[in-house]
Design a protein that fits this description.
Elements (H helix, E strand, L loop, with lengths): L1 E9 L2 E7 L9 H9 L9 E6 L6 E7 L4 E2 L3 H13 L7 E6 L2 E9 L5 E7 L24 E5 L2 E9 L3 E6 L5 H12 L9 E9 L2 E8 L3 E3 L3 H13 L6 E6 L2 E7 L6 E6 L1 E9 L1
Parallel strand pairs: 2-3, 4-6, 11-12, 13-15
Antiparallel strand pairs: 1-2, 1-18, 3-4, 4-5, 6-7, 7-8, 8-17, 9-10, 10-11, 12-13, 13-14, 15-16, 16-17
Length: 283
């Protein structure tokens, strides 16, 4: 398999992007995602994102995690898709619609001084809060999972679960530690009470308008940022009474701004989109 690619990141959440408007990929895409994502023997990234034409939007985003599993959406990834569409002349509009596995999302693009896109605001849509929509069996169908006790490997915690088109399990903690993120995180990801696995967020509240977050991402391990996760954290902070609806979320790779709008019930996320380099992959 041979193709051109672009390496991009949103707040350090990095993916390999392939323009499927101009070229076609055939074969085992899950295996390809595993190979190109390898940080020692491949290009290196949190996964593979294909940018396809769409019959209903400016483009369609297809996302594979680093382990080859296909995911519905990535908040940081979709900002980079929008930047690519604009900067590479495929959709020269500062208002875009992008099709994903979680539906069609609306985006507002903010050009920088050089005319390329520097920041993107994504309408992440409304959070899904019923247990069966996340999905999780931590509560009966129709109920919300807020401050729900969860015991993993002798560690008792209280978690809040939110879907932003993909599942998230959020725990508020006093300190963000490796034993929690790298030890407990992967165990929660594959816990049978999350039938489609789950992303796991550990969050330290700095103030009612600011938090710090580390994420164990389903299928990729710890990532430097997670846009859907940051959106879910914004919702969980309000549901548990810890934060306001408008917050700054400081992640390992940068800062995202989140707003759970009370009027529309939609979460709006604003953050950077950066093109790192372009290259060619050939087997």
């Amino acid at each position: 398999m041979s193709f051109d690619f672009v390496k991009m990141h949103g707040a350090g959440n990095d993916y390999i992007y392939v323009d499927c408007f101009r070229q076609k990929l055939d074969g085992d895409l899950a295996e390809l995602a595993r190979r190109v994502s390898d940080r020692r023997f491949g290009i290196g990234g949190d996964g593979l994102i294909l940018i396809h034409p769409s019959a209903i939007a400016d483009g369609r985003m297809q996302m594979f995690n680093a382990d080859g599993s296909e995911s519905e959406m990535c908040g940081n990834g979709i900002r980079c898709v929008a930047k690519y569409l604009y900067d590479h002349g495929l959709a020269r509009r500062t208002s875009q619609r992008i099709e994903t596995g979680a539906g069609v999302l609306q985006l507002r693009l903010h050009p920088g001084p050089d005319g390329t896109i520097a920041q993107v605001t994504v309408d992440m849509g409304p959070p899904r809060l019923s247990a069966e929509l996340i999905p999780t069996t931590l509560a009966p169908p129709g109920d919300r999972v807020i401050n729900q006790p969860l015991q993993i490997d002798g560690h008792l915690m209280k978690v809040t679960c939110v879907s932003m088109g993909n599942p998230h399990c959020i725990q508020f903690v006093d300190e963000l530690t490796d034993p929690l993120v790298l030890g407990i995180g992967p165990q929660i990801e594959i816990d049978p009470r999350f039938p489609r696995r789950t992303n796991v967020e550990f969050v330290k509240v700095i103030s009612r308008n600011e938090v710090e977050q580390r994420t164990w991402e389903r299928g990729s391990g710890e990532t430097w940022a997670c846009g859907t996760g940051a959106s879910a954290v914004c919702v969980a902070g309000v549901l548990t009474g810890r934060t306001e609806r408008l917050i700054k979320n400081r992640l390992l790779g940068g800062t995202l701004e989140l707003n759970w709008d009370e009027t529309t019930d939609h979460v709006f996320m604003t953050g950077p989109a950066v093109e790192v380099f372009a290259g060619h992959w050939s087997d």
